[in-house]
Amino acid sequence: MKNKLFYFSGTGNSLKVARDLADALGDAEIIPIPNVMAKDNMIIDSESIGIIFPVYMFGMPLIVHEFIKKLKCNKDQYIFSVSTCLPGFPSLCQVIILRYMVPLVLRNSKRCLIKKRLGL
């Protein structure tokens, strides 16, 4: 698959977003994060990796945080995330991206929109 979308969803909202995103992207596989957490080393063989998750208690669910720590990416992969939350919390979603996703991207990817936006 060209795109792999990993999601965690407690209520189904993030799953809905993952399905819609997969339809829009085409050539995408949707993978529940709990199904892959037993693996010690997660090497993903796709052009892009998407991580879709809800905002819990003003932060990222622990399972998603642990998943990101285990994730091994190719330096040429495009990595992105989508966080679902209540309307009016866009700045909270930006904090989550900066705290959790930017270190992953900086560690593993050359071409990323976040790096460009930060001027890195």
What's the quick description here?
It is built from 5 helices and 6 strands.
What does this structure look like?
It is a single chain. The chain has 120 residues and is an alpha/beta fold. The protein has a single domain (3-118), classed as Flavodoxin domain (Rossmann fold, 3-Layer(aba) Sandwich). The chain is built from 5 helices and 6 strands. It has a 4-stranded parallel beta sheet with strand order 2-1-4-6, sandwiched between helices. The chain has a two-stranded parallel sheet with strand order 3-5. Helix 1 (13-25) links the parallel strand 1 (3-7) and strand 2 (28-32). The protein is globular and about 35 Å long. Residues 107-120 have low confidence and may be disordered.
Distance between the termini: 29 Å
Could you spell the SSE succession in H and E letters? EHEHEEHEEHH
Strand content: 15-25%
Q: What is the CATH architecture term?
A: 3-Layer(aba) Sandwich
Instruction: Please give the share of residues in helix.
Output: 40-55%
- Name of the CATH homologous superfamily: Flavodoxin domain
> What is the CA-atom radius of gyration, in angstroms?
13 Å
> Number of folding domains?
1
* Spatial shape: globular
**What's the pLDDT, averaged over the residues?**
76
Structural class by SSE content: alpha/beta
* Number of helical segments with 4 or more residues: 5
CATH topology: Rossmann fold
Total beta strands: 6
Uncertain stretches: 107-120
